[in-house]
Structure formats: structure tokens, C-alpha cells
Model the fold of this input.
Amino acid sequence: MDDPTPFHMVRLWLESPGLTTVGKMNHLPLSQTSTLYLAHCALKELFGDRAPKPFHVENGEDSGRYVRVLGYAGADSEALESEARIGTDPTIYDICDWDRLRSKPMPESFPEGMQLSFEVRACPIVRKSSAGEGPNGREWREGQELDAFLSRAWENPDEELTREGVYRDWLIRQFEVRGGAAIDPESVGMSRFSIERMVRRTHGDDRSVNVIKRPDVTLHGTLEVTDSDTFRKVLRSGVGGHKTFGYGMLKVQRA
Done:
């Protein structure tokens, strides 16, 4: 049975100087804070719990002045703008170019067997289930979050590994666990890789700022839908961790 919950793909433009203002209002160290996290803060200020998530920051023709954001949301463009008009600081409200806000409803179903090409900007990490030490002496704590490549390399130092290969396996594993689609392993490629610094606030009274380093990878390939309901849930929720930082939005089109 298909998942009846509707959601929309949303595209909007946020003024780059306005994102800097958002960072200052949130007392973030701007030299260490990524555009992805500033976009997250702006979306949260504008739309609250209805903010697009997962989302993806794109490079547009006017990327010097604006940051172009694509995301999945439970509301269309009209409802999002109405949300932003309630209680949003005028300075924050003016960050968005409302004339260019657009949305479209996503399909209610994806037929089983449908072939789709995909692209995803992901943060391929794993969380260690227990403390341990690899043959090379590398140690990790229970619950520690590690780059998927480093985790495998530390556990198997003699194995010949490539980041592309490990991240491909990581992505395939995401769908093996969650279901909804099967990825063609031969189709998966990595078009970009970097190690990014992420600034995030801790919870609690002090609300201190932590800086962490995580892999930032764009993967592409083809997949086959195996269950429409589950696949829509994966699209809507995103793939992998750190979606707050702009990772995990699976963009698809017919293969």
C-alpha cells in the first residue's frame, strides 16, 4: 500500500549577506561555520518545524549574491510563506527571495521496478557499537562517530581500500537496512570529496559551540525501486547522518 503522506520539492533563494546576519544573531563563529549550517539556521528561523529537510545547497548563476536551496518539505510554497509571516523577525524574513520560491508535489507512488538515476550529497559516517582497537593500534569508543572509510581502514589496515569503494558500500548498506530500492553497485561513482568542519551547538543551558570534522561526499548512480511506500519514506527523510548540515537529500530522475 502506497504511503499517502504528501510532500513537496521546494526551491528557494537565500541572500548570502543575510546568512551572515543569521550567523551573527546565533553567535556562531563565522570563520568556522559552513554555508550549509547557516542555511539550516535560516530555514529553521523562517519555517520552524516545517523547514525543508533534507535539503541541498546548490550553485546557481547568481551564487555570489544568493544561496540556492533545494529540499523536501511537508508543505508547498504558499504554506511555507504563510508560516514565515508568523512571528519571523523582519530581518530574517527578507533573507528569502519570495518571488522565486517554487514547489512541486512529489509522486504519490514509484512503481516497483522503476529505474532511477540519483545524486546525493552525503556524510558517510558510522557509529561504533562498542569500544575497540584495530590491529594498527587505532582505538575507538563505544558510540563514537567515525568516517566510514577510516572506520574500515582502522579495523582492516591490510585491506586495499579506496574512499569511493568504501562510500559506495556504505550507501548500498543504507538501502539494504532501510529498503525501498536496490542500488546497482557498478553504477555508483564519487564526483566530489572533502573533509568539512561542522559547527554545532550543544544542548543544555550553556549552548556551547563544538567544531567537528566529517566527510562530505557527492555520490551518483542508478537504483531500482523495490517498494514504493518505503522508497518515498527514504526520499522524505534522507540518507545518512547530519541532515541538519545539508546532507542526505536524494535527488532522482528517470534513468
